[in-house]
Write a structure and sequence with these properties.
- The chain is α/β, with parallel strands linked by helices.
- Helix content is 43%, strand content 16%.
- It has helices spanning 33-46, 70-80, 97-111, 125-129, 138-156, 194-203, 214-225, 248-264, 266-274, 281-288, 306-319, 331-348; strands spanning 8-12, 50-53, 85-90, 115-119, 161-164, 169-173, 186-190, 206-209, 235-241, 243-245, 303-305, 321-327.
- Helix 3 (97-111) packs across helix 5, helix 5 (138-156) packs parallel to helix 6 (194-203) and helix 6 (194-203) packs across helix 7.
- The relative contact order is 0.16.
- Keywords: Flavoprotein, FMN, Monooxygenase, Oxidoreductase.
- It comes from Amycolatopsis saalfeldensis.
- One of its GO terms (biological process) is alkanesulfonate catabolic process.
Length: 354
């Protein structure tokens, strides 16, 4: 797998109100549109390349907590921002593929070609079951998602689509206007089970991998890269929670403080895990590698001095990671710190950097 000379940096929108411990004194839990708008506008000004808006209808840490809605927010951010890529997550069971494809094409037009959708096949059971939507068995969700994204991709490509499958029956359907800036919006896919990796190899432009030790990520990348595929090779993204300071010791002290806060609020995390699909590989991985943040968080190893974090990013990029989707706490202050102190160091480590 060839390395990436110039990695891209993204930020997770704070759809839950926080990506770290909920009791952080300098990071009030706030999932409001106003906060997210200001955060992503600042990320755009700071030069971040993308933002990921995760999708839940209710907050999985407790339905008494606010939750940002993904697709309305993506459309608004597409209109307000200048250069940052807007990636909206989608759970196929929530929206018919024809409807979603139309929404995606509209946001692509609003953004001027800066939109991506992130296909995730759901793990939080109450969100669907309490709404009367069946929560299918793990592998069936991926079979459903495969049909769903096949229809969506065809429509995004501007094709006239007819599709007859187990779950969807679409006859002679075409959407207009088509994408005026490129072939179609970028398709990201998450998930690490075997059905997920097969779906990535067949249908994804970019695979989002959860933060975990290098050897595990290297194994996952090698598996997908070796699978049969038509078209351009799959590109790879990694989720990570960053704790960067002047020295390694300062960063480790900050991480220890976050762990104390996490311990005090662990009941929320335990309740979330109890409501997750036990077959979701993500949670099996999380159990092996304790971390701060979601989606692997600090298990990706981006904890240390500015130089240490930059060097580890360079090592991940050499492995083939193109996009780093980052979490921070307190989010805004640490995002600025990363842009000021870590990004320039990463650039200095780029091959052939002057």
């Amino acid at each position: 797998m060839a390395g990436v000379a110039h990695p891209r940096f993204g930020v997770w929108a704070v759809v839950y109100g926080s990506w770290g411990p909920f009791d952080h004194p300098d990071d009030p839990v706030d999932a409001s549109w106003e906060r997210n708008k200001q955060l992503i506008l600042e990320a755009d000004r700071l030069g971040f390349d993308s933002t990921l808006i995760a999708q839940h209808l209710v907050n999985p840490f407790g339905d008494e907590l606010d939750q940002l809605e993904t697709w309305t927010s993506a459309a608004a951010l597409a209109a307000l921002t200048e250069r940052i890529e807007i990636i909206a997550a989608i759970k196929p069971y929530l929206v018919h593929p024809v409807v979603l494809a139309k929404q995606a094409l509209q946001i692509e037009q609003i953004s001027g070609g800066r939109f991506g959708l992130n296909l995730v096949n759901a793990w939080f059971k109450p969100e669907l079951e309490r709404a009367g939507i069946p929560f299918a068995e793990h592998d069936e969700r991926y079979a459903y998602g495969r049909e769903w994204i096949t229809v969506v991709r065809g429509l995004l490509n501007g094709e006239r689509v007819s599709f007859q499958g187990k779950y969807f029956h679409v006859e002679d359907y075409q959407l207009r206007p088509i994408d005026a800036t490129r072939t179609r919006p970028t398709v990201y896919v998450g998930g690490e089970s075997d059905p997920a990796r097969a779906l990535v190899a067949d249908k994804a432009d970019v695979w989002f991998i959860n933060g975990q030790p290098r050897a595990e990520v290297e194994r996952l990348i090698a598996d997908v890269a070796a699978r049969p595929r038509e078209g351009d090779p799959v590109r790879f993204g990694l989720s990570a929670f960053v704790v960067a300071r002047e020295t390694d010791a300062e960063a480790e002290a900050e991480l220890a403080a976050l762990w104390e806060l996490a311990e005090a609020g662990k009941a929320r995390w335990e309740a979330l895990v109890a409501d997750a699909d036990p077959k979701a590989v993500m949670f099996q991985t999380f159990a092996k590698y304790p971390h701060i943040g979601t989606n692997g968080g600090t298990a990706a190893g981006l904890v240390g001095s500015y130089d240490t974090v930059a060097r580890r990013i360079r090592e991940w990029a050499d492995l083939g990671i193109e996009t780093f989707m980052l979490q921070f706490q307190p989010f805004e202050a640490e995002m600025r710190r990363f842009a000021e102190h870590v990004v320039p160091r990463v650039r200095e480590l780029a091959p052939n950097a002057s």
